[in-house]
Design a protein that fits this description.
By secondary structure, the protein is mainly α. The protein is built from nine helices and two strands; from the N terminus they run H-H-H-H-H-E-H-H-E-H-H.
C-alpha cells in the first residue's frame, strides 16, 4: 500500500442553502402527487357512507392534482433534486387508485344494480385496467391514447348520472375493458392539437356540468344529463375522426 493513501470514503460536501431549498421544493412535489392517494381515500370513505356526490367531488380534486403536479415537477427539476423517489412510479400508483380502484368501489357501493353484478363489473374494471397501466404503448407519437385510457372514474360517473339498464351498463363496461387493448385512439383533451380550442372549451363546459352533478348528489336534471352525454360522445367521436384522417 502506498503511503499517504486514504481508504476512508469521501464525505459528500454539505449542500448549500440554495441547494437545500431546491431539494425541499422538489420533494414537496412528490408529497403533492402522493396527496392524490389521500384524496382518493376520502372519496372512498364518502362512497362507503353513500355520499356519491361528495365521493366524486373528492375525485375531481384528485384530477386537479394530477393535472398540475407535472408542471411543478418540470419547473422545479424534481428528477435532479429529488431523484430518490420515482415521480413516474408514484404518479402511476396514484392514478390507478384515483382513476380505477376507488371508482370501482364507488360503483359497488352505489347499489344501482344487484350486488353480484356490481362486484363483477368492478372486478372487470380493476383487472383490465391493471393490464392497461402496464402497457408500454399507451400513447401515440402525437399524444393520443392508444386504447381506452382507463378513465373509469368518468365511466362510473356517467353510469350514476344516467343509470342505464343493467345489461347496457355491463356491455359498456366489458366493451371499454376490451377497448383498452385495442388500437382505437382516444383524445388527450389538453395535448392533442386537432380541434384543441373546441375540445378545451367543451372540456370546461363538461367540468362545470360535472360539478353541478356532484352538487345535486348525482340526482341530475335532464339538461345536465344532455350536456354531459353529448360532450362525452364528442370525445369518443374524435378518435374515429382521427382514424378517418389517417385513412
Amino acid at each position: 500500500m502506498m503511503a499517504g493513501t486514504d481508504n476512508h470514503p469521501t464525505t459528500p460536501p454539505e449542500p448549500t442553502p440554495g441547494e437545500r431549498t431546491h431539494r425541499y421544493r422538489a420533494f414537496s412535489v412528490h408529497i403533492f402527487t402522493a396527496s392524490g392517494a389521500a384524496i382518493a381515500f376520502l372519496s372512498l370513505t364518502a362512497a362507503i357512507e353513500h355520499q356519491m356526490g361528495l365521493a366524486f367531488a373528492w375525485l375531481g380534486l384528485a384530477l386537479v392534482v394530477d393535472g398540475i403536479d407535472g408542471t411543478f415537477a418540470r419547473a422545479w427539476a424534481v428528477k435532479t433534486y429529488a431523484p430518490q423517489l420515482s415521480g413516474d412510479v408514484l404518479d402511476l400508483v396514484v392514478d390507478y387508485v384515483t382513476y380505477v380502484f376507488v371508482p370501482a368501489v364507488i360503483l359497488l357501493m352505489s347499489g344501482i344494480y344487484p350486488h353480484w353484478l356490481l362486484a363483477t363489473q368492478g372486478a372487470i374494471i380493476v383487472l383490465s385496467a391493471a393490464l392497461y397501466f402496464a402497457s408500454n404503448t399507451m400513447k401515440t407519437n402525437d399524444y393520443w391514447f392508444r386504447g381506452f385510457p382507463a378513465v373509469w372514474n368518468l365511466v362510473v360517473f356517467l353510469l350514476l348520472v344516467f343509470n342505464p339498464p343493467a345489461l347496457i351498463a355491463t356491455i359498456c363496461v366489458i366493451g371499454l375493458a376490451l377497448a383498452q387493448a385495442s388500437n382505437f385512439t382516444f383524445v388527450h383533451p389538453v395535448r392533442v392539437k386537432m380541434l384543441r380550442p373546441l375540445t378545451l372549451t367543451l372540456l370546461a363546459v363538461w367540468s362545470c356540468a360535472g360539478i353541478w352533478a356532484t352538487i345535486e348528489d348525482m340526482k341530475v336534471d335532464p339538461v345536465t344529463q344532455w350536456v354531459l352525454g353529448l360532450i362525452a360522445f364528442y370525445f369518443l367521436a374524435l378518435g374515429a375522426l382521427r382514424r378517418g384522417q389517417d385513412d
